Prior knowledge:
- By secondary structure, the chain is α/β, with parallel strands linked by helices.
- The chain has one domain: 3-Layer(aba) Sandwich (Rossmann fold).
- About 35% of the residues lie in helices and about 15% in strands.
- It has 4 helices and 4 strands; from the N terminus they run βαβααββα.
- Helix 1 (about 20-35) crosses helix 4 and helix 2 (about 50-60) crosses helix 4 (about 115-135).
- The relative contact order is 0.23.
- The mean pLDDT is about 90.
- This is Protein-tyrosine-phosphatase.
- Pfam families: LMWPc.
- Keywords: Arsenical resistance.
Amino acid sequence: MTDNPTAKPSVLFVCVHNAGRSQMAAGFLRVLSGGAVEVRSAGSMPADQINPTAVEAMLEFGIDIRAEQPKVLTTEAVKASDVVITMGCGDTCPIFPGKRYEDWVLEDPAGQGIVSVRPIRDEIRGRILTLLSELGIAPVDAASA
Length: 145
């Protein structure tokens, strides 16, 4: 995945506000990869804070994303990543040759209650497990997260 065979792969999750979907994906990947993947997240128009309902949904899995802050998408973050996964930001994500790009079509959890956010969270978890498999990384304690 990287030019250096001993370097760990890096993944960037991008959504518009970097407050819900991309933060949940980054939280799952950090935990389930056991540190075997460098994880970044960013937004094309970052919110002021993480979506509290996304935080609540992740805490149900024991994953705490409360300390995270929405970050602005930079060209440097894209260049530094092997895999760029977008979630509804469309053309605002810069494209660089040699990177793997995926667009995950997921409902935006903004303004939704926990009952509506849980299925989004669960779909993200499933996609993270698939991504880990594609990267050749066994998930760490996948049963609990």
